[in-house]
Write a structure and sequence with these properties.
By secondary structure, the chain is of the alpha+beta class. Helices cover about 25% and strands about 25% of the residues. It folds into two domains: about 250 residues, Alpha-Beta Complex (Naphthalene 1,2-dioxygenase Alpha Subunit, Chain A, domain 1); about 120 residues, Rieske Iron-sulfur Protein, CATH 2.102.10. A seven-stranded antiparallel sheet has the order 2-11-10-5-4-3-6. Strands 12-18-17-16-15-14-13 form a seven-stranded antiparallel sheet, with helices on both faces. A three-stranded antiparallel sheet has the order 7-8-9, with no helix packed on it. Helix 1 crosses helix 8.
Length: about 425
């Protein structure tokens, strides 16, 4: 018998009185001035996930990450000592981008023994040290030890590689993540190395797409046509209520009960789902991944659908009850555009049927994501009209309410810090 917990007494939002319950402004999503300060206050100071350790399998493995929001590019590399390090992707000679392939603005990856600048041939080892200068004798008192690559703070948690562009981060990565996120340590992310990647340029502010995956209130309406009418019509009529929302500092999680499609009447399934034994909830035949950490499925739903962990500012880990997970990244490129990345991770397929089931899940996820992206471009255009200034949010949109409050708080703190008199000025 299914066990779907009831929400605790009172509303979710009222558990966090600092959020309030009034209408919410989305000016933070349409203001160019706010975006410019957000770049400095958030993305140049926060821990940002840029990949996974599986992308760096051996000494010399590297990848680059373009961070348009911070106007920089970083190199992430595994050194000879096995440590993962990050550097700004710039040659110390004349400022050329150091690592790129055919197109300077595109990301790249590979394996090497050293990094060599394409412009004048300066060379750097895997630890970032400058090891060779072409015609070194023609420079004036050049100290190669002073011209290594500029390091970026880098740390790893549960196989996820994070960087922090702040010269002096205010918190360690673990302190930043906090107990709710670190509570999922022990989930076997490392077993799921088969990847499917979707990337799209979306015409909306990054936070609006974050909002879309922080509530399921929209699902029975927006995605109604993605399921047979026998399923979608009752779902729209009855609505959807997730059994668990939680906020921990700037981060949040929404967890939900699930369905087992193979137990539904055939008229509630798509023919392709029957043929592939897969769909939105993933492959029907789940792999054995062992016991799960206590932080997963916090509501203890049975059957359990998924947990969506929203890691500030722009990273989501979505763990599915069927033994796979996916990540979302929302990389701002302007106040009204961003690059959306979705990566699905599975235990590697052992046969053709399993591979097809994985591909069906990936295609289904892409189909749903395209619907969300298209809708949010419509949202952006009308928010920018300015004719409506604030909007009511319901109790299931508590994580959306928190996201925009956190964004405003970080920017306001930055603005206050910037406007405060310096120590020298205070002395005068």
């Amino acid at each position: 018998m299914a066990k779907w917990p009831k929400p605790p007494e009172g509303s979710w939002t009222e558990h966090y009185p600092e959020l309030g319950t009034g209408p919410v402004s989305f000016l933070d999503s349409i203001s160019p001035e706010f975006y410019e300060d957000e770049r400095e206050a958030v993305f140049k100071r926060c821990w940002l996930n840029v990949g996974r350790v599986e992308q760096l399998p051996r000494t010399g493995s590297y990848f680059t990450k373009e961070l348009a929001v911070a106007k920089t590019s970083v190199i992430v590399v595994r050194g000879a000592d096995g440590e993962i390090r990050a550097f700004h992707n710039i040659c110390r000679h004349r400022g050329n981008k150091l690592v790129w392939t055919d197109f300077p603005r595109e990301e790249t990856s590979g394996s090497c023994r050293q990094f060599v600048c394409k412009y004048h041939g300066w060379k750097y080892d895997l630890d970032g040290a400058l090891t060779f200068v072409q015609q070194e004798e023609e420079f004036f008192d050049l100290d190669k030890d002073a011209y290594g690559l500029v390091p970026v703070h880098c740390d790893v948690w549960s196989g996820f590689v994070f960087v922090n562009l702040d010269p002096e981060p205010r918190q360690s990565l673990r302190e930043f993540l906090g107990p709710m996120i670190t509570g999922i340590e022990g989930y076997p992310f490392e077993k799921m190395t088969e990847r499917f990647v979707v990337r799209a340029d979306v015409g909306s502010n990054w936070k609006l797409f974050m909002d879309a995956f922080q509530e399921f209130y929209h699902a029975p309406i927006l995605h109604a046509r993605q399921t047979p009418a026998a399923f979608s019509i009752p779902a729209a009529a009855n609505g959807f209520h997730a059994p668990h929302y939680e906020i921990d500092g700037p981060h949040g999680v929404v967890s939900t009960a699930g369905i087992r499609p193979w137990n539904l009447p055939s008229e509630m399934r798509k023919p392709m789902e029957d043929a592939t034994r897969s769909g939105l909830f993933g492959p029907w035949d789940a792999p054995d991944i062992g016991p799960l950490p206590d932080g997963v499925n916090p509501a203890k739903c049975d059957p359990w659908g998924l947990d969506s962990f929203q890691i500030w500012p722009n990273f989501v880990i979505l763990i599915w009850g069927q033994g796979w997970y996916l990540t979302y990244h929302y990389w701002p490129t302007s106040h009204q555009r961003h690059t959306f990345e979705s990566t699905l991770y599975f235990v590697p397929a052992q046969n053709a049927r399993e591979r097809i089931a994985h591909e069906m899940a990936a295609v289904s996820m892409k189909e749903y994501g395209l619907q969300d992206g298209n809708t949010l471009e419509a949202t952006q255009t009308m928010l920018e009209s300015g004719y409506v200034q604030s909007f009511p949010l319901n109790d299931q949109e508590v994580l959306c309410r928190n996201l925009h409050k956190v964004a405003v708080d970080w920017v306001e703190d930055y603005r206050a810090e910037r406007s405060a008199p310096s120590d020298a000025a205070a002395v005068r």
